[in-house]
């Protein structure tokens, strides 16, 4: 039989200590969120669910965040792969560039973006002539969110791809598969948890983005803009229920993302 | 199909591989060599996973060096398998789009049917190795590079697979480079054997030649000729010569003229040991004292200090063949048939005993 | 941008407006115009900066302080269409707030001076409400004939919040009282103390009196006290824009939202294009 | 000799294609940033470097972002480890919780944080009594930035830790090391690229954070707040040089971070 | 120091390990078994890396089951090494704070001095394995669990290390469980050998007993007794009996009474093959035809179809011992000394030929 002290020692689990520390952070996230959610009368929240302005904003937010997450993934993954698999100082330098959009306050990001895609710029007016105005449009929403959120995909995926043994890619290629196929079928699935983390972060950030969006596209309104408008016109009581709707929307999407994107290794 | 390797070199910090020149036709080249002698480096340089510093590799005249891995069509089985951890054994094997029937057939052949639907993390060491082998074969490569593909298998399974591979290689008619540290596997599978030492090929030839006519003490020792003794040849003409080892004299049969200083090589199995008082046997006889007896299952390894010399001879003795107990301190008579002695000129060859120590 | 979009009916008109006008425009003006109204609201100074810096390019600009039309914006003309008054809003659920209510209407500054009430105000450097709060305090000292200058005694840096925070702090009860526009107090249903017209910056009649107090902006520009006056201008002239601007400046909706429209409003300054001032 | 077509085929490198795609994204980051940097007369930028307000703001930003990155790492790493190494549904759920702070528009985050650490709350008044006011102070800056930026450390590190073979930790423990030591000396160094990515993202985001910071701490001003104040009072010409200073500051810090935090595997 | 294992069980989907009961004193238990028979699972359950479903493990009375890995003090060398990829070989070995001298000494012993300052990614397969071994030994564990620690090494190096380990284990006086698929290593190192089959211990005993007196056809075949033939005993009394195999009759010496149905087991090395017309040899003689000859280096493996039966006998014949060429189709005389035949009652033991196929 084990002696009691041995049992206690066995039970004193370091994993629980990590959870304890982590719980502090979790509480820091949860308490304000719960305060927000609990304080709103469910009726008020449900009423917002049918308000056309809120429905429109939800649509814009989902479309915009979806589009920018797609853009971020489509362009960010190749970039991440290149950064991870190229030797030398250049990738380190470029990684720093990727992080810079995060450093700018979103409003400033919005303003500098306007200097590039604004209606009076070459790009902006060309696009507008082609019928795709880059500001005050869904395209503008997506552009603003892409600028702010896509670095997460790049930086997180880069780290994840670096963690995949290059030899597995070699093995796939030695079986006659082109590098692209090897990456698609071996490297990316193995880096998937990290890539998914990046995509999740980017999507969430895009959903919550306000500063840059309001510069590029006040209209169509995203949820954060709608919350802000409601707040400035009618106050907190009007704004917070919409925030709860936003949180609900995000949770639903994140759960779908987690489920569709299950780690293939598990 | 011919695999040609010319002037291949690769330097790591503290290790230099090559230059190596080899040519492998539709045959199996077994590569033997100590741990760290560059066997995996050699295969990697052919497959493209190691970038050589110099040299050319070509397959049927088509140059491989400088080409991307995927265009080389060189199927490599990595030493540690390098299985895709996120795919089941079946998906690993059918990675290149192999038909289900072929996968089943390979699985049957390599006895891994039960393991097919598990991921590498849930496979045993030997199962993993066999999946790696099957995966490479399923890709129908133009040449095969196998890095110790049977090292994690138990003896009976390894023997069965070795025989499977033997038939397979014969049927495929591709250049096969088979790295192994199993002398038997090299002998059975190799049409030729190359012995690597410190990144260079020390000797290449058919198994019989490598085993029985090594060109250097290193090759001799490495391929199981544990007895490599310095000897002098007082009178070296004709097919039969007398060798002096210390104070003792043995008779040896030689094919060419030999210089006065030689290495006398005898495989332990060719050394007969009998109790000193038993009848004289065939061949030259030496006397000595048993210093150690090691039970190796079917054989006993007997170490005999030869009287009149400071050398020890290793004999591999089978139970019941010579009869009688052999305990340490017993005085014995050691007989070596003249044909069992292989003579290597002791001129510029280094001893090689630094690399391969004796018991 | 309104000019290019005649093809898609109804035409859209973009209005960049001061935050305090947002509710009136969103819920008062919008139902009264035919055009698709796109209102963007920021702080008045921010609106002026955004337009001056060409970050934003609206059809109509409407600000809470016409002084901004002398810089950073320099439109050829503008219309003043409403005024507002400053009030001291308080939170009736709170001890500090109740004390303020008890001191009203003539002794409202006492609890503020004694420190029993936590007051919130906005940054005088950043928006007109901020420096107008200081003007009110100085004018009140004069009006009530106090020995202590309220402008010296009351303000502390801790009282300064950005406007959004001020509102949310007040609504969640972290601040007992805040100097704010009457329109805002009305629309949000805050309890408030009205101030005498000599103090509350609402009455053009007292313009001379108001002009005795000043505040120096970080740019070095000196702003003098003046009646609160909401001004607007049209940047891109087009029929739908004019329609909107006309409703904006002449609408009765302004009263509903707590603004004051003196009889002589709107008044025009500068080079008014034909047909705007009818 | 290789034939010319073979040469070309050999040179057509898929890695370059990934860079091509990635370059689109890089340009999208770089062009606005360059537009910003190049447009500012160097003299104007240097003048800001000595302005006391800017120096103060830089100090606050660096201290705040540094503190919040430290907090995020100190509490976030244990949480990430726990999330990565615990089986079951709970970690998935909690990971969603971790992402939620990103979904809220920063201003809303600031507002709900005020309901928890504001001066009139239990926590806030207790802290204020203890002489550590949680709003309008450096602590407030750090709290706001931690809320917004720490999820990056948690989510990215979690993915990185998941990628480390558990057997290596087992091996370390079988050598007699406690779990904590095994994690510190084996798991964390191996997950380091991912963790560093998370820390980098968190730091950058904290440097750029505006909405929540301005709610919790208008004073002392951080660089984004200072930029905003300069913009609304004096306009773009005043604000953009400060933004350039911010970018320079961030680049310098990121380079230091990259250098100090070199991947131990390289 | 005693390692006790009682009723240990672990089930995977499709594989059940145990129940296994074993006790290992200050000795070396060699574990032999086919690939996938649960050897690594066994070690893992002792070390704590595999959570068993049932059973107890204790070390010197101190229970290990349920304890965290780090408190077990069971040093395990994983089959694939599990080296820390971010640390050099030296840092790997001194992970537990070993002194520099000890690291140098271990490196010297395992011949990896040159590799010490390289990371695992830059080590050869064999170097990696030796670093893993050194790392585990450096931690001074209370018992040693080694999972095929020499499988990636060339024969001479493996033999040298085997001898090093032999001395080391003797000096340490700890329970050592040594998983290997090298029958020789098991014989030389193991004080006892346990043969695993499908997760269960089929036989435990000293090497000689396992090799020469297997208790089941499976153990016989797995340990190199390739000849396991069904036989009947028409007349089974006394120390010497006649066995009927098909139409042929051989004489065998037995120690106990045997039932009428038996398995006759003969190791290939004990089967003598001589040309049919040469002088009659010692022991019972059978006649047959050579069906295949495999050169295995020192030995040739001769497969002989025995006349009057449908069985094939495998003989391992040494060059020059019996003289004369042995080609397929030659008619030969096969002799088996009566003492070389081991008899297993054919009652409830399954055949085992499903697991271990013949050539
Ligand atoms: N990437 C590398 N960097 C530095 N040295 C290396 C690298 N790869 C291998 N080496 C060294 O080169 C030598 C040859 O290695 P290689 O793997 O080819 O040996 P090997 O013959 O396959 O040995 P083994 O039988 O042990 O697998 C070894 O000493 C090894 O330490
Ligand atoms: N995690 C797992 N999940 C499912 N099956 C497993 C798992 N680990 C091992 N197995 C299976 O259990 C059996 C025994 O595995 P184990 O690794 O113990 O074999 P082994 O005797 O060490 O074989 P080898 O000699 O090939 O290393 C194998 O069939 C293997 O596929
Ligand atoms: Mg190797
Ligand atoms: Mg195993």
From TrEMBL, chains A, D:
<dbReference type="GO" id="GO:0005886">
    <property type="term" value="C:plasma membrane"/>
</dbReference>
<feature type="transmembrane region" description="Helical">
    <location>
        <begin position="239"/>
        <end position="260"/>
    </location>
</feature>
<dbReference type="Pfam" id="PF00528">
    <property type="entry name" value="BPD_transp_1"/>
</dbReference>
<keyword id="KW-0813">Transport</keyword>
<keyword id="KW-1133">Transmembrane helix</keyword>
<feature type="transmembrane region" description="Helical">
    <location>
        <begin position="137"/>
        <end position="157"/>
    </location>
</feature>
<keyword id="KW-1003">Cell membrane</keyword>
<feature type="transmembrane region" description="Helical">
    <location>
        <begin position="62"/>
        <end position="84"/>
    </location>
</feature>
<protein>
    <submittedName>
        <fullName>ABC transporter permease</fullName>
    </submittedName>
</protein>
<feature type="transmembrane region" description="Helical">
    <location>
        <begin position="12"/>
        <end position="31"/>
    </location>
</feature>
<dbReference type="InterPro" id="IPR000515">
    <property type="entry name" value="MetI-like"/>
</dbReference>
<keyword id="KW-0500">Molybdenum</keyword>
<feature type="transmembrane region" description="Helical">
    <location>
        <begin position="186"/>
        <end position="219"/>
    </location>
</feature>
<keyword id="KW-0472">Membrane</keyword>
<keyword id="KW-0812">Transmembrane</keyword>
<dbReference type="InterPro" id="IPR035906">
    <property type="entry name" value="MetI-like_sf"/>
</dbReference>
<comment type="similarity">
    <text>Belongs to the binding-protein-dependent transport system permease family.</text>
</comment>
<feature type="domain" description="ABC transmembrane type-1">
    <location>
        <begin position="58"/>
        <end position="255"/>
    </location>
</feature>
<feature type="transmembrane region" description="Helical">
    <location>
        <begin position="96"/>
        <end position="117"/>
    </location>
</feature>
Automatic annotation (TrEMBL), chains B, E:
<comment type="subunit">
    <text>The complex is composed of two ATP-binding proteins (WtpC), two transmembrane proteins (WtpB) and a solute-binding protein (WtpA).</text>
</comment>
<keyword id="KW-0408">Iron</keyword>
<keyword id="KW-0067">ATP-binding</keyword>
<dbReference type="InterPro" id="IPR017871">
    <property type="entry name" value="ABC_transporter-like_CS"/>
</dbReference>
<dbReference type="InterPro" id="IPR013611">
    <property type="entry name" value="Transp-assoc_OB_typ2"/>
</dbReference>
<dbReference type="InterPro" id="IPR008995">
    <property type="entry name" value="Mo/tungstate-bd_C_term_dom"/>
</dbReference>
<dbReference type="Pfam" id="PF00005">
    <property type="entry name" value="ABC_tran"/>
</dbReference>
<keyword id="KW-0410">Iron transport</keyword>
<dbReference type="InterPro" id="IPR015853">
    <property type="entry name" value="ABC_transpr_FbpC"/>
</dbReference>
<protein>
    <recommendedName>
        <fullName>Molybdate/tungstate import ATP-binding protein WtpC</fullName>
        <ecNumber>7.3.2.6</ecNumber>
    </recommendedName>
</protein>
<dbReference type="GO" id="GO:0005524">
    <property type="term" value="F:ATP binding"/>
</dbReference>
<dbReference type="Pfam" id="PF08402">
    <property type="entry name" value="TOBE_2"/>
</dbReference>
<keyword id="KW-0500">Molybdenum</keyword>
<keyword id="KW-0472">Membrane</keyword>
<dbReference type="GO" id="GO:0006826">
    <property type="term" value="P:iron ion transport"/>
</dbReference>
<dbReference type="InterPro" id="IPR003593">
    <property type="entry name" value="AAA+_ATPase"/>
</dbReference>
<dbReference type="GO" id="GO:0005886">
    <property type="term" value="C:plasma membrane"/>
</dbReference>
<dbReference type="InterPro" id="IPR050093">
    <property type="entry name" value="ABC_SmlMolc_Importer"/>
</dbReference>
<keyword id="KW-0547">Nucleotide-binding</keyword>
<keyword id="KW-0813">Transport</keyword>
<comment type="similarity">
    <text>Belongs to the ABC transporter superfamily. Sulfate/tungstate importer (TC 3.A.1.6) family.</text>
</comment>
<keyword id="KW-1003">Cell membrane</keyword>
């Amino acid at each position: 039989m084990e002696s009691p002290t041995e049992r206690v020692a066995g039970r004193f689990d370091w994993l629980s200590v990590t959870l304890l520390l982590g719980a502090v952070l979790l509480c820091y996230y949860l308490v304000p969120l719960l305060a927000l959610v609990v304080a709103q009368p469910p009726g008020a929240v449900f009423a917002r669910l049918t308000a056309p302005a809120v429905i429109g904003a939800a649509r814009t937010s989902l479309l915009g965040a979806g589009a920018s997450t797609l853009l971020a993934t489509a362009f960010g993954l190749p970039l991440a792969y290149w950064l991870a698999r190229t030797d030398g100082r250049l990738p380190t330098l470029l990684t720093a560039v990727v992080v810079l959009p995060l450093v700018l306050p979103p409003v400033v990001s919005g303003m500098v973006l306007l200097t590039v895609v604004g209606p009076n710029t070459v790009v902006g007016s060309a696009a507008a002539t082609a019928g795709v105005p880059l500001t005050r449009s869904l395209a503008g929403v997506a552009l603003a969110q892409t600028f702010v959120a896509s670095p997460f995909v790049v930086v997180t995926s880069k780290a994840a791809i670096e963690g995949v043994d290059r030899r597995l890619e070699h093995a796939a290629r030695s079986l006659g598969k082109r590098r692209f196929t090897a990456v698609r079928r071996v490297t990316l699935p193995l880096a998937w948890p990290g890539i998914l983390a990046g995509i999740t972060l980017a999507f969430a950030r895009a959903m919550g983005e306000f500063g840059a969006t309001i510069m590029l596209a006040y209209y169509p309104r995203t949820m954060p803009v709608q919350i802000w408008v409601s707040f400035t016109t009618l106050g907190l009581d009007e704004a917070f229920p919409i925030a709860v709707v936003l949180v609900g929307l995000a949770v639903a999407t994140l759960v779908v993302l987690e489920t569709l994107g299950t780690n293939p290794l598990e | 199909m011919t695999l040609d390797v010319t002037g291949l070199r690769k330097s790591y910090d503290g290790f230099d591989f090559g230059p190596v020149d080899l040519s492998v036709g539709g045959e199996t080249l077994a590569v033997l060599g100590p741990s760290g002698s560059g066997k995996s480096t050699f295969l990697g340089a052919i497959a493209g996973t190691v970038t050589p510093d110099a040299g050319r590799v070509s397959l049927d005249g088509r140059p491989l060096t400088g080409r991307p891995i995927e265009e080389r069509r060189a199927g490599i089985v990595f030493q540690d398998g390098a299985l895709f951890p996120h795919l089941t054994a079946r998906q690993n094997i059918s990675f290149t789009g192999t038909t289900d029937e072929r996968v089943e057939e390979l699985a049957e052949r390599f006895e891994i049917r039960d393991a097919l639907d598990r991921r590498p993390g849930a496979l045993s060491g030997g199962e993993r190795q066999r999946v790696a082998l099957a995966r490479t074969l399923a890709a129908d490569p133009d040449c095969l590079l196998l890095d110790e593909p049977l090292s994690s298998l138990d003896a009976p399974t390894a023997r069965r697979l070795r025989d499977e591979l033997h038939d397979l290689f014969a049927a495929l008619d591709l250049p096969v480079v088979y790295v192994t540290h199993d002398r038997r596997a090299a002998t059975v599978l190799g049409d030729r054997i190359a012995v690597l030492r410190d990144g260079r090929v020390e000797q290449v030839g058919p198994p019989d030649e490598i085993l029985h006519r090594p060109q250097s003490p290193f090759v001799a020792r490495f391929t199981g000729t544990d007895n490599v003794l310095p000897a002098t040849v007082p009178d070296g003409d004709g097919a039969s010569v007398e060798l002096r080892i210390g104070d003792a004299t043995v008779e040896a049969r030689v094919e060419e003229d030999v210089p006065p200083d030689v290495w006398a090589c005898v495989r332990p199995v060719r050394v007969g040991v009998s109790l000193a008082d038993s009848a004289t046997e065939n061949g030259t006889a030496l006397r000595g004292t048993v210093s150690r007896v090691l039970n190796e299952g079917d054989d006993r390894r007997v170490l005999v200090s030869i009287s009149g010399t400071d050398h020890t001879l290793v004999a591999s003795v089978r139970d019941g063949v010579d009869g009688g107990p052999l305990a340490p301190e017993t005085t014995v008579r050691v007989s070596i048939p003249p044909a069992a002695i292989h003579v290597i000129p002791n001129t510029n060859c280094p001893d090689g005993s630094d690399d391969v120590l004796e018991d | 941008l309104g000019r290019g979009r005649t093809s898609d009916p109804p035409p859209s008109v973009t209005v960049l407006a001061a935050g305090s006008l947002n509710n009136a425009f969103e819920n008062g003006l919008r139902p009264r115009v035919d055009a698709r109204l796109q209102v963007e609201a920021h702080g008045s100074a921010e609106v002026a900066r955004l337009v001056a810096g060409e970050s934003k390019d609206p059809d109509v600009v409407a600000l809470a302080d016409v002084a901004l039309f002398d810089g950073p914006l320099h439109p050829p003309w503008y219309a003043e269409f409403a005024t507002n008054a400053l009030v001291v809003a308080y939170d009736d659920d709170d001890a500090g707030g109740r004390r303020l209510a008890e001191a009203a209407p003539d002794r409202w500054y006492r609890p503020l001076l004694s420190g029993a009430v936590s007051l919130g105000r906005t940054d005088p450097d950043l928006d007109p409400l901020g420096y107008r709060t200081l003007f009110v305090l100085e004018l009140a000292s004069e009006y009530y004939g106090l020995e202590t200058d309220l402008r010296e005694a009351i303000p502390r840096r801790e009282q300064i919040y950005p406007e959004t925070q001020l509102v949310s702090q007040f609504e969640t009860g972290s601040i007992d009282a805040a100097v704010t526009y009457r329109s805002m107090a009305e629309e949000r249903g805050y309890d408030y103390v009205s101030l005498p017209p000599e103090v509350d910056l609402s009455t053009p009649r007292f313009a001379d009196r108001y002009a005795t107090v000043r505040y120096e902006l970080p740019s070095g520009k000196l702003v003098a006290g003046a009646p609160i006056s909401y001004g607007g201008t049209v940047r891109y002239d087009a029929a739908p824009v004019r329609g909107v601007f006309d409703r904006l400046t002449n609408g009765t909706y302004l009263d509903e939202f707590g603004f004051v429209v003196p009889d002589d409003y709107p008044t025009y300054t500068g080079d008014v294009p034909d047909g705007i001032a009818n």
